[in-house]
## 1
Amino acid sequence: MLTETRLHPDDLVLPLFFNEALDSVRYTGSMPGVPTYPLSDAEKVAERLHSSGINAVLLFGIPGHKDPEGSGAYSADGVVQKAIRKIEASSDLLVIADLCMCEYTDHGHCGIMSGGGVDNDLTLAQYGKIAKSLADAGAHMVAPSGMMDGQVLRIREALDGSGHRDIPIMAYSSKFCSSFYGPFRDIAHSAPSVCGREAYQMNPANGREAMSEIQRDIEEGADIIMVKPAMPYLDVIRQAKSEFRIPIAAYQVSGEYAMIKAAAANGWLDERRTMMESLISIKRAGADILITYFAEDILKELVR
Ligand code: PBG
């Protein structure tokens, strides 16, 4: 009766990886228990997840071929576009498509490179194309994670202009330039080959700037905003909750997951209890939506 915060299956979003080049499921050393699926598994996986109680997935694709323009990200036959169609055909999962270029570019950056850096405005044009292509394939929501200035407005315009006025945008509004993304980059083969992402992701020291990033995204048309990573930024989640009247998602990222897994594998932490405590804390700080690689394991705890 006195418990103030509870996890619920409806809170959870499970990230899912599809790799076009695979013909069987593959595991990555730094992300124990997180599979990368071949496209041929998509229907089966969607059915299984939905019947186990997962409601929503966040899709990432690893293309067979990468190029400087990340053209695989907006191809009608791209890896994520194919995965979306298969998942839609076989389940009632809510399908959220991550919208970025770093998995698709050969240099690993989240946009078009020019003059030694990422060109914000050239990249916006690509994001518009990607948004249209993901919505055409049947995505129910898009989640831009590239941190280009003006991306939410540009994507809103691209969606509205292509008959997708009802597709919401979950904006990675305050995405910090974090070391906690390391294991994700192992899965997605998306570590930048030259320089880091400091020019477009946020300085971890800046909580006030995070509020202005969020405000700008809301003004541009974001329907849900996100704070990422989650546990090192609980203060940012809390502040966003008190300043804004909009749903807040928090992404417990790959490094947060990997730390718990590694400590548990060594017998240093109790995995089940640490997992539950980490997510309860993120929700207590103010997150309405929890994106986590633990989603299936949490469901098992909730039905105990
Ligand atoms: C793509 C993207 C990244 C993550 C989600 N979308 C990687 C990055 O910014 O390098 C990280 C997710 C995770 O670490 O779990 N821009």
## 2
Amino acid sequence: MTIQHAPISPKLPVLMHGADYNPDQWLHDPAVLEEDIRLMKLAGCNVMAIGIFSWASLEPSEGEFRFEWLDQVLKRFQDNGIYAWLATPSGARPAWMSARYPEVLRVEANRVRNLHGLRHNHCFTSPVYREKTGVINRKLAERYAHHPAVVGWHISNEFGGECHCELCQDAFRNWLKNKYGTLDALNMAWWTSFWAHTYTDWSQIESPAPHGEFMVHAQNLDWRRFVTDQTIDFCKHEIDAVKWANPDLPATTNMHMIEGLDYRKFAGVLDVISWDAYPTWHDAKDDIKLGAAFAFNHDLYRSLLQKPFLLMESTPSMTNWQAVSKLKQPGMHRLSSLQAIAHGSDSVQYFQWRKSRGSSEKLHGAVVDHVGHEHTRVFRDVAELGGTLADISQVAGSSTPTETAILFDWENRWAVKDSQGPRNSGLHYEETVMDHHRALWQQGIATDVIGSEDDFSSYKLIVAPMLYLCREETGRKLGSFVERGGTLVATYWSGVVDEHDLCHLGGFPGPLRKTLGIWAEEIEGLHDWERNGLSMLPGNALGLSGRYESRELCELIHLESAEALGQYTDSFYAERPALTVNKLGQGKAYYIATRLTDDFLLDFYRTVTEAAGVGRALETALPAGVTAQVRSDGKSDFVFIMNFSGAEAEVALDGRSYSDLESGEPAEANVLLPVNGIRLLKRAAAR
Ligand code: GLA
Ligand code: ZN
């Protein structure tokens, strides 16, 4: 079902364009603010994220508040049609606070308390830190929650990390008491009879430590769950402290591919998802893989709330934290920025507006360079994009129709890496998930990235690579998805453990065994240089033939109700099944028993998606590295054709009637895309 979503802010119901802005670094020179406003308008910027690290300017000493400078910035914004995501300053705190209240300082896993410095260096449990953030947030809300220039709250900055102080240890123990009730239940769930790890008092339990316990897998998993819950609890505390003044002002927090936090759980406390994307273009010399990887991430963040998100940060030129920082080649700024829009973002925002003069980010890419004027390549790229975003503002609020989803759980991600099994030199979970996603991306198939607890019923195809941690409930849900006509693709290393990281008894893939119709008896790890192969069986239902290379992991499976489509080519298990399909109810479940390469995945998904009736953005062949993505408002489809191939490319449109999204002119039948080119088209919505 296609939905036109309400704008993220009714004050600015268009695509947002802007940057992190730190006017507090330039308070000594008031001319800078005036010049910045002139340049913002010139660059077509309509929104800035301000106050992100401003605590020392807002509260220079305890209880002494200074808001005049922020009043002035917001007033100048208002006068000039510029809006603000107003940040809470908790991402870094003033030195006076660390000096007076050492408990706010973070303790690392080695149990050493950090000194003052850096950022994100605080305890999420500390009552003092919570009190201080509560006070400053309430003050900001009191003053600005109804300010006409403020479109929403930017809560803190890139929450992340963990604290192991005594306050956090106690909070962890309470969290465990709440979850398990009794120590007996915890000991059973954690399988602590192993190595005499049985706990006899709650106080004996500690967070995982490099010089203490880190081998109890269920404990590691629970610690990560606790860190997620505690960080969300802190985030919620911050949100409550700003929302009381105006519940209608939306709140977001900028996310950043952080592995340690289950972002899916954050979705519940946020009004809009935002994230910071830093693709390192031209560095690895594989912009296709990178383009697909960022497509995956955009899909992931969009799927958290199933509505438009914000690209809160990206670099207008280069970063300053890569080993070697490449400049964006001509066209790439436009392509990379509009890729976010294509995948459901309603904004393109940067880190940062003006380069800071000193400290660690003084040489990070920014819209305004140290030269201080607009006559730079980067500024021109940004201003041109500003023009495009204004031209295509009808895209704002449109949705991304999908029929396919990839299952990607944080818990599985954590557990799989902790598994200590067939290949400790690398199971490559994320890479594998992205390999599957890329095969769909290459065909212009829109894909949601969902979790086990999401609703599966609207999809035709669900891909669940390496679902190592699989709850009984997830197994049941996937089973009924297939029975009701869905197509499931699963792989080796699935259904091994449950939510306590305890192995499923009675045969892998545990809760998926019936759905997949196989029993996985053993799994072999291969060295990096070793290969096996998949040879397709004559007359197989996929219509594929020949041999594909396989590597890393080979599972030895038995057919139960499934049929073999292909078999291993080598080793003592040559001719045993390596690819199977099981028919169950109205649907089908495929099992890929070994890690296969891109050529297989492309051939496989081409056939499987066609059989499953999954639609593509364009019903036409796309050259390698060229993809297409659709957003729709129900009346019109907005089609983005993107060229990451590094060469010129040509795409024959599929016979439907297209116009140029910016100019409205009818589109040519063959679209020519330059290197790093993107074409924006419009057609009548299909449904
Ligand atoms: C992150 C932070 C920003 C800045 C950028 C630099 O995304 O949120 O404050 O440090 O990285 O790339
Ligand atoms: Zn702590």
